[in-house]
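Objective 1.3, modelling of assemblies. Example input:
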Amino acid sequence: MGSVATAPHAHAGHAHDAHHHEESFVSKYVFSQDHKMISKQYLITAIVMAVVAVIMSIIFRLQLAWPGESFAFTSFFLGEKWAPNGVLDPNMYLGLVTIHGTIMVFFVLTGGLSGTFSNLLIPLQVGARDMASGFLNMLSYWFFFLSSVLMLASLYVEGGPASAGWTVYPPLSALPQSIPGSGAGMTLWLVSMAIFIASALLGGLNYVVTVLNLRTKGMKMTRMPLTIWAFFVTAVLGILSFPVLLSAALLLLMDRSLGTSFYLSEIHVAGEALDHVGGSPILFQHLFWFLGHPEVYIVLLPALGITSEVIATNARKPIFGYRAMIGSILAIGFLSFIVWGHHMFLTGMNPFLGSVFVFTTLLIAIPSAVKVFNYLTTLWRGNLVMSPAMLFSIGLVATFIAGGLTGIILADSALDINVHDTYFVVAHFHIVMGMSAIFGMFAGIYHWFPKMYGKMMNTKLGYAHFWLTFVAAFGVFFPMHFIGLAGAPRRYYSYTEFPMFDGVVDLNVLVTIFAILGALAQILFLYNFFYSVFRGPKAVQNPWKGNTLEWTTPVEHIHGNWPGAIPTVHRWPYDYSKPGKAEDFVPQTVPLEHGEEEEHG
Amino acid sequence: MTKLLILLVLVLAILAVAQLARVYELTSKLRGKREEDISPADNRMNATLWWVFMVVYYAFFFWLMWAYGDKMLPVAASEHGVALDALLNFNWVILFIVFFITNTLLFWFAGKYAYRADRKAYYYAHNNKLELVWTVVPAAFLAVIIIFGLRTWQDITGPASPDALQVELYAKQFDWTARYPGEDGILGATDFRLINGDNPLGIVTKESITKRLAELAADKAEIDSTLHHAILPDGKVDELHAQMAKIDRQAARIVNLRTMMEQDMAEKGDASAYAHGADDVVIKEFHLPLRKEVNLLIRSRDVIHSAYIPHMRAQMNAVPGMTTSFKMVPTISTDSMRLVMKDEAFDFILLCNKICGASHYNMQMPLVVEEQGTYDAWYAEARKKPFQAPPMAAAPAPPAAAPTADSTSTTVDSTATAALKP
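Predicted structure (tokens):
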């Protein structure tokens, strides 16, 4: 069969069948270089990490709702050391908050989301046999795996895990005297993140090269599905910003271990004046947020890309404003690099510099608004198939609206004075980044599950999962705006020490109840997912009647993706319900009819 | 025990859900339905649910406004705070309008256009005029938001007037200390190496330098004597030598500081920053006079903290190694605010709003805003008292693995030790 797999598999097996090499268990399931298998490895790892992070959030939500109460749930997971008599320890509270954030942002929504779907979809949707480098791709996953293991291991060291918040601002993160989690736990955090960054870079380089070089005949950049555009820009953002975090982490490691003073100056802690002089903790914040803000879009753009694809397919209607969508992805990607200072309005930064960041930050609202209006217009007069993926995609638009609008408040430096680091911020970023990205991830899983596993997931359970999750998401994060507007700071172990917060403490109970509901709803998903992997009904080749190339590959995974020649692309991916066509979709591989105009969106 | 029961109930609930799902699946299999298919009934049900959700969503929103609207921060008690609240309300109006329009369209479309086999979607791929409209209209609204926002920001962050009262807020794990200038109206220079029990802010004066050098010399002598008189393992000997070297380094730097101080005072006389520390008032109370501009100078001893006074709409980070500032004019006294809040016990609170360690959640100091006369009387009283570290009963001790002061520490710092010991 002509030009099969580009990846070298000469060592594996001798029996060749028509399509692929027979492989050993290790080369097929463990050190696989096949992008489809690697994408599944990313997904399963991310699911495990997400379960850990959700359990953490339930533990600290219990504490916040009923401070000082004893919980068997808490002591079951933390033991007597960190939960004496079932009451969460304040240091461990900060540790859980820190690791919950780290895992969710990096391991679930960066590694899990981008890793899973960039790997699965880039070769399949641009028409490539595999990634540009299967070996680097495998390395990228195993670095990710190693960093996940190290991050989980950091939970078990003396002194507990890193506890300085997921932003690990020094000096708190640099001085074990200031918080026990800044001992071995913090070292492991930094090492884990360094390895994670290596993984993200290997993956990102691979995605960029694959998109640029391995597109099939006819797949012009302006014929690529919006998923690929989103993954492509995401990868570029990662390549440009993650190295900065690596340097920030290395300097912090040196301050911690080698006595340098990049971030430390004039500190008197635990009854002792330290030798460090001349550094600045603010330098770390600049370096951190130079990654940290693009990171928000590294998390969000893939979700938006998935949503664009899922909405168009299930609305049986072209995505409205294809080129405007590409333009807004590029604009968001570019602007994300010049807004980082809006996290630092209150650090004593020059107020004029703050003004510049206000301006650039609010500019991002424009491409974001364009995206929302284009989604709305795509839904308008569509023929919406209510698949679970479609529900999650529409849900994403709702969370993107609700969370995006409060971003306008936070980006306004004057208003930020009074809501900075309060629960208002927690509400904002959990809705716009956390919920939107996780909804995008669920949409992707439900939509491409047939492609990943050759099976179908149960739709009814998917509905129950979506509606419970959707209600819980707003139940958890909507009231947090009110807690924040009452002035309640984030990262507080309890609010009982301040009479001024008495009025909103019962909202914390409401939030926790919804959080528990939301966590329980994920059990439906896990059951549906794993049951369907093994016992789900067999999928057909193109279950959602999609136009893109992945639905032209066989249901059974084969090396090289297409048994014969790679298909040629003749049109853009959004010819749904095109007038004059019998079917309501026209795959990209169908040549233009005589006299047919090609649509460019 | 009840908690155990709750856990049990949760586990059983999970099992029940899983079993129900299983039963449901089996029965529908028996009825010959394919669960992975999306039936017309599914489309109808979800379409209705979008509309139901929209109603519930808005109802939840209004319920929160109704039930908790009066529990948000009350009227701003500072001059800029009033302007800031007006800006916030202006923003809310715009955002609420956009919120309701976009969400209503979203949920309306989601419900209205659910799939019907007899209908075909409207093929509508692009319209540049529309794209232009929803680029330009948001841009125009944002321009207004930016202009109003930056104008307020400029007013708030502009330089304080020269005759503003200077008050320092000094943060450390896990409490606040205030410093008021003496008669000269100017806060003296500080150096972190001078910090000790009597001088928690490290104020530079001839006396504080002499005293600190003597302390270091005594510490060194003690280590020296230990080295001479005790039989110690090699590791301990090295450690003590390192400590002595560190004391020498610190002492050398303090001697440098003294030279600089002496030169500066010789050159500038009373204008020298070093000439103002002796009469500073260091106190664990925070009072401000009503309707007088105050320039808060904010510093930190150890990690980053953030000085946040919600009722004043005032916040600025406390960053070790640098001084930040925030100026404001309190416009409502504590007494008036108690009337407004109908709460005799009400206090303005300065709290920490940047994660700083185990007791971050209880790092607070009440702020008393009072008429100039009352303030003057308090200030006169405060000047008479030497600095007294109050008992640290307030800080709840972290139960496990608390950061305890190193017993071999060469510096004796009563406040720091008190704060850190459980």
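The beta strands of chain B are 165-172, 175-180, 281-283, 286-289, 294-300, 305-309, 314-318, 324-328, 348-352, 364-370.
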